[in-house]
Amino acid sequence: MKIDIIAGARPNFMKIAPIIESIEKQSNNKINISYRLIHTGQHYDKNMSGSFFEQLGIPKPDYNFDAGSGTQSEQTAAIMIKYEELLIKETCDLCLVVGDVNSTMACSIVAKKLNLKVAHVEAGIRSFDLSMPEEINRMVTDSITDYFFTTSELANNNLLNLGINKKKIYFVGNTMIDTLLKNEKNFLKPEFFDKENLVIKKYLVLTMHRPSNVDEAHKLKALLVTIDNNSRNFPVIFPVHPRTSKILKNLGLKFQSIIMVSPMSYLEFNFLVKNSKCVITDSGGITEETTVMGVPCMTLRNNTERPETITIGTNELIGTDLDNLKTGLNKLFKGDWKSGSIPKLWDGKAANRIVDLLLKLN
Ligand code: UD1
Description:
By secondary structure, the protein is an alpha/beta fold. Helices cover 45% and strands 15% of the residues. The strands form 2 sheets. Strands 3-2-1-4-5-6-7 form a 7-stranded parallel β-sheet, sandwiched between helices. The chain has a 6-stranded parallel β-sheet with strand order 10-9-8-11-12-13. Helix 1 runs parallel beside helix 2 (46-56). The longest helix is centred in the first third of the chain and has 19 residues, at 10-28. The chain is globular. Bound molecules: uridine-diphosphate-N-acetylglucosamine.
């Protein structure tokens, strides 16, 4: 069985790493399974892409489409054209996509139109918010997927509600958590940790990159100023995503507590998260990681496609209302944050389950 594994943007790399490892293990056992790794180039900087390959031991991609930048459609179209060219030259048996980024949707459409099977890892999650490009990517991808690998029973239900045949849905767990658990012992203290006199559990971590939070300067500024003024002088480490950085450059903001740093490598970022008092974020993936590490998490969004991080884990939806944000920070500093537990099958074995299932589907 020849599988194309698609990865394009930062949150894809930790999801494919354990799948590749598991396929390689099987092919060393003389089982007939092989893969081509395709990097669409949606993210291309060393700190958004290259460092993840190095630290997670992901092999060099067989193909790189260099399709970064541009509008949503320019990026999607560039990826589709390149992937179609490749498949016409040399086909595969199955296209495996992960997550919800533009590369996920673009490649699944191309493969399906060439009558190839599509497997979607992290299928079925929904925010029901169509203003997010990721939600559209999820909906389109799941509408043409053949094999749905899910991270939660809620995702299974979302798919069943759409009329998907339950025989095509496989609840396998979370490959992002496979990577987290495997690498936890190797987390690296960032260089700035001591220079900034950071103390374990006495600082916060902040990430923001959603267009709805960062693309309008006044919203971004209001969120940052509120966090800066309500962090009780705890340092707030803010690794700035390139999208956010473009907007921030023109604002000339000065902070008392927020310390801006470049996007961080996987092992350093998760060292920082694990030892923090709390994470404030608009990411989805980070809310899963904080749940597993038991770190309080405030999500700067009004909805989430990962509700189990709230019902089971340490996450709470704060939204973008500034008063809610202040209330959330007060609760944290009063020591009232919930402790949470770990969702079912987030046990480090999801990728093995996926590859075992793929071999049976063959
Ligand atoms: C993308 C994903 C989002 C994911 C996020 C994580 C989609 C629709 N969005 O959003 O789901 O949570 O990645 O990071 O697929 N840029 C650089 N260097 C890079 C990468 C990007 O400078 O290495 C620039 C781009 O040129 C662009 C901006 O950052 O101007 C945003 O990148 P883009 O890939 O469009 O989407 P993200 O906002 O990163």
